[in-house]
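Let us practice reading a record.
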Amino acid sequence: MTFPEHSVEKIGGTSMSRVRDLRDTLFIGSREGADLYHRIFVVSAFGGITNLLLEHKKTGAPGVYALFANADNDHGWLDALTRVAEAMVAAHEKVLDHPADLSAAGEFVRERIEGARSCLFDLQRLCSYGHFRLSDHMLVIRELLSGLGEAHSAFVTAALLQRAGVNARFIDLSGWRDEGEYDLDARIRTAFEGVDLSAELPIVTGYAQCSEGLMREFDRGYSEVTFSRLAALTGAREAIIHKEFHLSSADPKLVGEGAVRKLGHTNYDVADQLSNMGMEAIHPKAAKTLRQADVPLRVTNAFDPGDPGTLIDDKPADAPAVEIVTGLDVMALELFEQDMVGVKGYDAAFLEALRRHDLRIVSKTSNANTITHYVEASLKAVRRVARELERQFPSATLTVRALSIASAIGRDLSGLSVLTRGLVALADSGIEVIAAQQTSRNVDVQFMVERDQLKPAIHALHNELLPAAESAPQKRAA
């Protein structure tokens, strides 16, 4: 399934909340006639909706899914589902003006919310019988609920554009009331049968129901997987992610707006390092799909449509350079065992404990008798792993410490003495470096510092490793 020269473009939830602005810039702007088309847009739910459906991404506050999973009675998740409906209506009332569009969107919300409510009630009744376990169905419920948000935003966006004279087409990959069983590729191919990209603008749900179960592996990163697979299957000229900021050399709030520069061009190696540091330009698995299909990725500021943004491809750097300085709060879990020297099994046991408790490893170091993993996790979760390892290795000493990693990243850091210069810059700023490392691949250097030293560390490293930007200051950094 391929189409003539076209792009596949993704819009995130924060940007979707300003979709009226995007109508006048990104979707239409100065385009007329055929220039409006040859594009496919994959959209996320309006900002905050997925948090209400599942759980809050940052605070963990329970949404419908979390309340249903732990329900002692129906009131919690039922009330939460009502709040979702109200939030959806409030979101599209900010977007749509025409009474007919508002009525259609309201009916769409009512039908989807009532369908989900009936489904959850039926599942509860079914699982009241001993042969059925609610836990066996929770992943399916998570996917069903999540798909509500994307379906709503795609429907509303298509209606908004149709009212503005664009031949927009709502394409629902969420599998709502679909009795067929498809894998992801088949789901996409089936949905795009008969689509004419020269005269239609597809608005596609970021969630796709498929036999693989996207949330099983990607959880809330599923929309980027749908986006990348769609770009690969359709033979896109380019895949574009529209964010509400440019990818910049650092956060201007930390280093000053006049000091940062837009990346402009980088590669997938750097994108992977950014993802590891919590600055996800794109999910690593989605990036892999694009790389294998030889589809370049562009990251743009959705509200600066005249700027080409940052191109991400497989090309090496023209010359060695640091491109971005960023950081992440981590927990350091250190295992010291005097008898470790020459004995196998310690590292494997450590990794298995982290895997079992689902802790994400950001970095690690080891020497003759010490293994340290830097993980992105809560103190509570890390302590559970520490207790398990203490039982397994009673003579070992386990230390848990809250730290941060400041990282300098670039396509090629060879010959720049980034490690040495970074250590000197941090020392000159009065910042103690607890650990530091640079791998032989020469794409990143990491400096482990105390939590309260991360911001000044990023500032010091950026000042040393990236001269004052020659380009115009950016509004926000990633």
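A brief commentary: The first helix runs from residue 13 to 16.
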